[in-house]
Structures are given as structure tokens and as C-alpha cells.
Amino acid sequence: MQSPLRRRIRHARRFTGYGLLVVLILAAAAVGVVNQMLPLVERNPDKVASWLSQRVGQPVTFTHARGEWTRRGPRFTLDGLRIGEGDRLLDIGRAELLVAVYSGLLPGAALTELKVRDLSLALEQGEDRRWRMVGLPFQPLPGVDPLDTLEALGELQVERARLVVRSPAFRRELSLPRVDLRLRVNGARLKAGLQAWAVDRGTPMTAVVDLDRGTWSGQLWAGGKALKLDDWSPLLADTGVVVSGSGSVDLWARIDTQRVMDVRSRAEFAPLALGARKPWRARPDGTLDSPAVAFERADLLARWQVDDNGWQLHAPQLHFHQSGRREPRSFDGLWLAGGKRFALQAPRMDLAPARALATLSSSVPVGLREWLREAAPDGELRHVHIQGQGDVWTGSAALGAVGWRPYGKQPGVQGLAGSAAFDQSGGVFRLGSDPVRFDWPSFRQPMDLRLAGTLGWWRSGGLWTAGASGLGIRGEDFGVLARAELHFPGQGGKPRLDLAAEVDPFTVQAAKKFWVVDKMPPTTIDWLDNALQAGTVEMGRAVLGGELADWPFREGQGRFDAHARLVQAQVDFNSEWPVAEALDLDVGFDGPGMTIDGTGMILGNRVGRVVGGVADFRDPRLRLDIDADGRGESLQALMLASPLRARYEEHLLNARIGGPATVALQLDLPLAARLGGRRIEGSLDLANASLSDPRWGIAFTQVQGRTRFSDRGFATEDLQVNFEGEPARFNLFVGDGYTGSPSLAARATLEGRFPPKVLLARHPPLGWLNDWLAGSSHWRLTVQVPQALAGAPAPPARLDVQSDLVGTAITLPAPLAKDAATPLPLSLQAPLPVGKGEIALDLGQLMRLRGRMGADNAMTGLIQFGAGTPAPMPAEGLVALGTSETLDAAGWIAFAAKGDGTGGLRAVDLRVAQLDLLGATFPDTRLRLQRGADHTQLLLTGAAIEGSVRIPTDLDLGVQGQFERLHWPDKPPPPAVAGADPNALPEEEEPGQDPTALPALRFSVKDLRLGEMALGQAELQATPITNGLRVDRFTTRAKAMQLTASGDWLRAGEGKSRSRFDVDFAADSLGELLAAFGLAGVVEDGETKGKLQGSWRGSPGEFALVRFDGRLRVDVGEGQLLDLEPGGGGRVLGLISLAEIPRRLTLDFSDFFEKGFGFNTMGGEFVFADGSASTDLLLINGPAAEIRVSGSTDLRLQRYDQRIEVLPKAGGALPVLGALAGGPVGAAVGAVAQAMLQKPLKQAARTVYSVSGPWKEPQVVVIEKGPPPADG
């Protein structure tokens, strides 16, 4: 059962529903009636005007009306609408009047609404900051309030109006193309709503205002949702900013007497992009653009207030969200104030949004805007306080993790922290201790630093200066303490920096971080990287003063002076040179370049000093002067490890240097390939060093002097050396820079006094000459090495040898023989190796040789003696031609017998003025040599000699000689020397033929003559013995005499010999024997026998009584001494002189010696020693007298000291004695003549003579007459 309440509710619902239905039916009927009556309105406008007048309370007129029914009620379009009259007349024009039959019945709703379209409205702010609307269909007049009329009309609607906003704060007016406005007056209050479009069909912004009409104060709200910021961006043209994105905005403002006094705002933009309206950044193509500042979202909660003292802005929340970052950038708590005083406070400010927004301002210079965008300063400012009035202000702030990226040539910093205090005249910044990363594109890598100190900036005379004192910069492996000032001149001038810094010790590896890569060529940096390998930098300091734009002050516009000391550094100055070690260097930088000065080691050589550097890193050339001390071995290793090896490896590898040496090296090395022109020069000083080269077989000691070298070669000039124990001078030039000729690769000269064996040792095939050369001479040896041509075999080197041979004795047979004192210019040119070309040898005017050396060291060539046109070169072997003043035939036979140096001699044809054969001289002789398969034939042709000598290849077969004639000349006795010391030693024997060099000899002669003595046929047989030659048999057979001899020819020392012989001779007639010696008419008849035993210095052919030591025995039979003239043949070989005695006998014994002197026998013995011959008794026994001769004769001084005793015989007379003639056998014949004298004359006739004085004019004095005194 239902309760009464429920029934009542059900009945109420039913009555309400039915009532609403009735109302709707009635309303529909009414609308239909009214709609049918609307045409009557158009036909009766006066009724409508009357109704409106009653409604407004003012006269209402219009010129035309048209009605239509809408959902809200009838709407009338009125043309020429005017309300009121007189001063209160409102001329509206065309309008629409809506009678809201439905909503107008509601409380507070207007029954009528007046709508106006296409108005031009203006919202203007006066200088007093008051706002007013201009452009409504009614304009206020003094004492007239048009809103009173508006109140009677109900609600005013303005559609599609254009709104312009003007303010003294705007540089230009803001224009909105469409505004819809609704105003309603309700007593003392005015309410309005507005929708504004920035563009057609865009998203509108809405505003609502509620004002008190009496004070024009009230509230304003404005805002919009999902606003397209691109539409509203043109309104910000005055700010120079373009906005894009989407957002929602709410503004709550308090209006006081038409002035906006307080605005609260809340906004959210997502996304938000801003850009400068005027393009400012240059593109690569030269056009300009405006980079956008974009945020993912921006949130704002702020309040702006203004009063008579100024304005202030407080933003409790201001966030900027960036893509990829979780936490927003914040300006929370930002407070700004302006007016008579200004201030800024912020507990925290992120720099990223601030610097991004700063790029949008045209008041920021383009360069700074570019830097802000690219460098992107970041970090935060904390506890920011700025306040002031006018030009006087102060401030402070703390920086935390501030940084920016490097941009262009400007450095970047990360992690900068500290605190700053500042005012209008300057400030200070105290650096924090947080780690800082410094990233400068001019450096090759960022650096992690810790900074300490205070920075400051100040204004003086209108110009700003920034500076630092006690600025500490600490890196991982370095530290710097600096003070600096940076001056900004203003007026577009260039900043000037004054800097002084001291650097803590650090390694050279750390130094590589500081290369200014954009100022230094890459090649310079590469060189520095490679060069500085190890070491410590100490005592580093730097001073800089000048405009940074002029760095590095190449023209002297500023000063840069940096110095440091490298300790125990390892520096690779050039990749082609060894690394320098243990260097202590003073390094200086002057802006464009650098200098170095120090000491160290390089490849084991002590560097006493290295000086140089790079003058300008723009065109980098490394110039170094290096002085190094060490051993020759290590310096040679240095040269081998240098670029010199590439061109002179052969010379550097073969040359051996030992001992102390000093190098002075100058290097000019381009560090950029474009520069070219590498230069290497230097000198090597040797002191008591050694130098050798196995290629030339040289080994120098005690080397003193200097060698200059460069990349074009090297040269030793007048190097003092000791060569094989002898002082010498050595010159060596290698390379076209020193040889003086591009075709010459090297030239070496050795000059000094050497024994020939030293030079012959360099060419073993000539070693046989050592036995024939003695002493030492001045020699000049030159070797020239031609430059090899590309693609062609290297030409042979050339050897040039020059000497005057003074001091060298040549013991080769004449004509090549010479003593040490005699000059004989020698000139030799030969290829090296000698088999690579022609050899030319000149011995003064004596001999010229031209030939070639074969692979078997056999010589082919021509030997030209004397003057004359050279003959053609033989096909093989050596040929000797020409003329010679002298030639030692026996010597050359012995030489050929030994085989020394004769292997290539094929033929000889010489014309010899004086042919020497075993000490004898044969004039004008032609000598020919013919080489056979098994022997060598020597042919001699001349007036005194004609024959041949056969020299077999097998010398054991002996040398055979056959002569048609051999006229052996006498060897002239040495001339007497007046006043000579009789006790003086014999003169020194000249070097002669070595008898040990002679082979076995077998000679036969058909016509042998010895001086004037014709010996007839002769034979010689000789055999070599240990130290000489044994003459087994020497015989002669002639009509006048026969001679048989044997003996030895022995070597008696270097260049000396001695002959020892036994000679038997016999003749049928002494007279004929003497005639054979050229002394005819001295003696007649006298059978003779004699024997000569003894020795003499020299060869057998050099026999002379003055040299002879031994005995001579002569026995002569019956004969006659013929009369002869004094001074003629009366001297028998200087042994006795009977020229004066017969004259005295003729005077004293004229009856005995008128017709000459016949003798029966003559005999005696002479002893020879030390150039003197003596006899105890030479007895001449004749029928008339007996003559006894005793005493001596000096064969050297040619003086007599003899006693002659004459004993006449009774009954007989002595013939006149003549002179006995000389020769090797003639001495014995003279002695025999005296031995033939009979017993002495009776004592009564006895006479004794003394013979003394020179041979030519002897003094004969009677010293006794009569019997000899009795003994006792």
C-alpha cells in the first residue's frame, strides 16, 4: 500500500508534465501567430519604433526594418537606427534587434539584444596608463553616459569588429582582424565578454571584464586553450620575436581606474618555439636565417604588479623543458623590479634558457648571438642579487657548473664555479675549487683543470679592463701561476692582453697538449710530436703583451717571450737523424717561432752545444747548430745514421774513424714539404785520431784536421796524418758540392814523404819493385772517382801519382838506376781497378809507359825511352823502344834472369849512348830484346860490341852469350887529388850489380880486347853460388899472350860486391905483351910469366890496381929495354919510373948506357894494399949492370917513394932504361925487366937514387955513392 507521500509525488510529476506540455503547445501556437504577423512589422515600422521607444525610454527611429523568426525569437534588421535626441543621440546605423522571447523571461536576462557588425575598434592607453575603448557605435560626451542608453536596450553585441591596441609602451600598434564583443550594463556595473582572433578561423582568445561604472575598477580575466601561437606571433612584431607552438594561457588582472595594477598569470606552452623576426645568422650560401629556440614545454606562474614607485615581477614558477632532459630548466623564484629603483633577485637561474632567449634579441651583437647559440653556455647562477638606482648599482651571484662549448677559435669551459661581486665600475670573481674542463679548438684535446685565484674587471677612463692576479691553473700533469690583464679599448678596437706566467715542472708529453694547432702548420705539430719523446720541462715562464688579433706578432706589433728548460730530454729533431738523448735545453718561444740552446748526447756522442730553432711556424724550417764531442767510431755511426748515408753509404761504411773527434753540424730542415731546400752542413775535427779505408788500403794514424761535410758531400782539407809511420797530408772531396765538377763523385789526395814499399803494398803485382827501391820521397797521390750516370755502369776511378823521387834510390839497372839525391820526376795515371783502363807512367824525360793491365795482371803496352814519336800500341805484352844515355846490360840480364817484373816484356829496341856491361862502357850500342817461347834473346850491336845473349826461361840452363867482338875499355884510374890526406879511407863504392842475381853464364868472344890489349878469343864459364857468382874458368888466347883466371864475385852487403881472382898469364915476348897493351917500343923480347892473386871492390870488370889488395909476381927472360922519353912510357902502371934514372945513368955512366940496356932476367913481387903498391926487391939483371928497386908508390895520390940502387958490372955497359908500360899484366912485365939485371956493379961504382914526388914529374936525387957503409 502506497504511502500518501509517494502518491503526492506521483501526482506532482504528472501535473508538472502535463503543465509543461500545455505550455509548449501554447508557446508553439504563439510563435506561429507571431511568425505570421512578422510581415506586418515590415509594413508598419512606426509601431516597432514606438515599442522600442517605450522600451528604451528614448526616441527610436530607423529608416527600414525587416523581421525574421529565429530559435530565440524574432530578429529585426534595422537600417538607419538612431536612439535618443539632442546631445543624447546615438547614431547606430544598421543593427539587428533580437527579442529573446524565451531567455528574456528569465531573471537577469535581457529581453532584447542589439547586434552591430564590422566595427573598427581601438583599445588605447594614455600617458597616464589608463585604457579606453574607441569605435563603439556611441561615443561618450561630457555629461552624457551612453551606457545608460545601452542598459535600456539590454545587451550590445559587436561581431566581426577589427581591434587595434595602442600604447606608449608599444613601438607600433597591435591589430586583431576580428573581435566579437558583448557588453551589458546592469546598473552601476559593466560586464563584457570578448573573443579575439589573430587570424580568421583560428583559435580565439577570450576575455571577461567586470567593472564598476563609477570608478572603472574591477577584474579582468583573459585566456585561451590550445592556442596556436603561430597565429598570435604577428602581434609580437614589436618585440622582434616570432613564436610558434601551442599553449594555454590564463591571466587575472586587477583594474583600478582604468589602469591595470596587478596581473596574475598561468601559462603552459607545449611545444614552444621562438625565433628572431629579423634573420641574423649567415648561411653558407650567403643568405640569412633565424635559428629557432625550441622547448618541449614551458610553464609559467607569475605575478606582475605596478604602483606609483614602479613595477615588480615575481615568478614563483618558470620552467623550460627540453627534449631529452628529465629535469626542467628553472627560473623559480625570479623577482624583478623596475622604476626609480631596479632590482633582480633569483635563488637559482639556469643559463641555458637565458642564453637561448638572448639570441632572439637584436640588441645583442650578432657575434655574441652566434657565440651564445653555438657555444651554448650552460650551468646555473645562484643567489643572484642586483639592485640600484640610475647608473649606480651593485650585485652579487654564485656560479655553479657553468660552462660553454668551444666555438670557432674561442675556447670552451665546463664546470666553472665561484662567486662574484660587482657594481657599475667593475667586479671580482673568486674562482671555486671545482674541477674545470678547458676545451679550446686551438689545443688538440680538452684539459681537466683546477683553478684558483681571483679575476677582476674594472673601468678606467671609460674603458674596461679584465685581469687576474695569482691565477693558479692545475692540470693532471702541469701547473701554471699567472697574472694577466685584458684591455678593451672600445670604439671597435682590438683587445690587448698583458700576461705573465710561471709553469711548474712537467713532462714533454704534457707539453704536447699546448700546441696551438690552428696557428701552427700540421707539419710543425707532427715534428714537435715526434721530436719531443721524453724529458722534463722546468723553469717555464712566459710574458705576452699585445693585441690578440695580431698574434703571433710577426711584424713586431706585440711581445711574446716564453722560456723553459728541458732536462734529460729525448728529442728526435729529424726522423732521418738519430734521436738526441740526455738533452738539457733552454727553449724559447717568441710568437712566430722558437729557439733552443743546450747540451746532450746523440748516438753516444756528447753534444757540447746545440743552438737553433724555428724562425716562423708559418713557414717552419728547423735550423740547428750542433757541436758534438766523442770518438771517431761513434761519430761515424752518427753519419751512417744520418741522411748522408743515402748518397755516400759506400764511403761512410768503408771509412773507419777512431780516436777523439769533434763535430760541428748545421741543419736547415724544412718541416713542410712545400718549403723544400733541405741543407746539411758541418765539420768534423779530428785530433790524434785514426782513419782507414780498406778500399784503398790506407790506414792513417795521428790524424789532425777538419773535414767539412754537407748533403752535397764532404771534404777533408789538408788533414795532417801519419801514414805508415810517416807524416802526410790527406785531402778528400766527395760530392759535387766539393769536387768542383758535377761529373766527379769524389777526389782524394795523399801527400807526404814515404818509402816506395808503402805505396807498392797497395798493389801486390808491383811488389817485386820493393827490392829495387830504397829510401823515401815526397809523393802526391790523387784518386778521382767519376759520377755514375743513371742506367750506365759506373766508370772506373783514376789514380794520379806524382813524385820527384828525391830521397829514393832506384837500384834497377841503368838507365832506371838513380841515387837518392838525384831528382827524377815520376807521373803515373791509372784506372782503379787497374784493369779498367789505360795506365800512363812518365819518368821525367827518361821514359814513358802507356799500357793496360789484363785480368791476369799481365801488362800490355809501350815503353818509350827518350824523345820521339810514340809507336803504335802492341797487341800484347810490353814493348820498349827509344833511346837512352846509358843501360846496364848485365844488370838487365840478371834482372830478366830473376824474372822480376818481366813477365810481360816481349820486345826491346833501344839505342844506347853508353852501354854498361859489368862496369865497362860501350858507346853507341843498339840493344834489342826478342821474347821467344822458351827464352829471351838479347842482341847488342855497336862499334865495340856485337853479339847476342840468350836467356832461357829455365835459368838452370844458364845464360849463353856469343860475341863477334867485345872491346872491353879500360877503367880510367881516379884522378890524383892534390893535398889529399894520405891516411884517408878509400872513397865509398857506388852501388853496383848484385852478383847473386846472375844466373849461370856461358860466354864466348871471338875478338876480346881489354883497352888497348888484344886478348883474342875468350871463353867464360860462371856458376851461381850462395852469395855470388863463381867464375870457374876465364881464358883468352892471343898471339901476344895467354891468360887463365878463376875466382869468385861475391856480394858484400846491400848494393856492394867484391871480386877475388887468381890470374895466370904468359907471353913469348914482353915487348909484344906490352904492345898488346898499347905500349909498343918499350921492351924488346923477354919471355914472360906472371901470377896475380887478390881481390878488389866491385865486379870483375871494375878491376884497378888502386882497388886491388893482393900480390903480383912477374918473371921475364932475356930482353932489351929500349930508349924512351921522360914522362912517356917509363912508368909501368905507376909501380916504377925509370924515365929519369936512365937519364942520370947516361950522365953518370955514359960509357955503359949509350945504346940502351939489355937484361938477362927481370923478376920481383909487388904487394898491393889500401891503394899502395910496395916491393922489397925488384931485380933487373943485365950484362952491364944490376938494378935493384925497392919502396912504394901511392896509387891514389900517384906519388913515388922508392929507392933505386945501380951496381954497374965491370966490362959491361948498361943500356938506357925506358919506361915499362901498364895494363893488368904490364905491371908484372916491368918488374921482370928489373929482375933480369945481374949482380950489382962493384961497390966502387955503386950509386943509390931516391925517387919521390908525382908520377908526372918525379924528383930523382943521388943519395949514396960508393960502397955501402959498414954495419955498426
Tell me what the structure shows.
By secondary structure, the chain is mainly beta. Among the domains are: 4-116, no CATH class; 406-504, no CATH class; 995-1265, no CATH class. Helices cover 13% and strands 52% of the residues. The chain contains 16 helices and 77 strands. The strands form five sheets. The chain has a 68-stranded mixed beta sheet that branches. The longest helix has 40 residues, at 4-43. Mean pLDDT is 81; it is low at 982-986, 1126-1131 and 1211-1242.
As a whole number of angstroms, the C-alpha radius of gyration is: 72 Å
Total DSSP helices = 16
| Tertiary shape | rod-shaped
Let me know the average pLDDT: 81
* CA(first)-CA(last) distance: 231 Å
Number of E strands: 77
- Please give the largest β-sheet: 68 strands, mixed
Helix/strand-derived class? Answer: mainly beta
Helix content: 10-25%
Low-pLDDT stretches are: 982-986, 1126-1131, 1211-1242
Concise synopsis of the structure shown:
The chain is mainly beta.
Topology:
Elements: H1 4-43, H2 45-56, E1 60-61, E2 64-69, E3 74-83, E4 90-99, E5 112-117, E6 120-125, E7 131-134, H3 146-153, E8 155-166, E9 174-186, E10 189-197, E11 205-212, E12 217-228, H4 229-232, E13 241-256, E14 259-276, E15 281-282, E16 288-289, E17 293-295, E18 297-307, E19 310-321, E20 329-330, E21 334-339, E22 342-350, H5 351-358, H6 366-375, E23 378-389, E24 392-404, E25 412-423, E26 426-431, E27 435-439, E28 447-460, E29 463-475, E30 479-488, E31 496-503, E32 506-507, H7 508-511, H8 522-531, E33 532-547, E34 559-571, E35 580-589, E36 594-602, E37 605-614, E38 621-631, H9 632-640, H10 644-654, E39 656-658, E40 660-670, E41 679-693, E42 698-710, E43 713-723, E44 726-734, H11 736-739, E45 744-754, H12 756-760, E46 773-775, E47 777-786, E48 797-803, E49 808-810, E50 826-832, E51 838-843, E52 847-853, E53 859-865, E54 878-888, H13 889-898, E55 905-917, E56 920-931, E57 935-942, E58 945-952, E59 959-968, E60 1001-1010, E61 1013-1025, E62 1028-1037, E63 1042-1051, E64 1057-1067, H14 1070-1076, E65 1083-1085, E66 1088-1097, ...
Parallel strand pairs: 5-8, 6-8, 53-54, 54-55, 59-60
Antiparallel strand pairs: 1-3, 2-3, 3-4, 4-5, 6-7, 8-9, 9-10, 10-11, 11-12, 12-13, 13-14, 14-17, 14-18, 15-16, 18-19, 19-20, 19-21, 21-22, 22-23, 23-24, 24-25, 25-26, 25-27, 26-28, 27-28, 28-29, 29-30, 30-31, 31-33, 32-33, 33-34, 34-35, 35-36, 36-37, 37-38, 38-40, 39-41, 40-41, 41-42, 42-43, ...
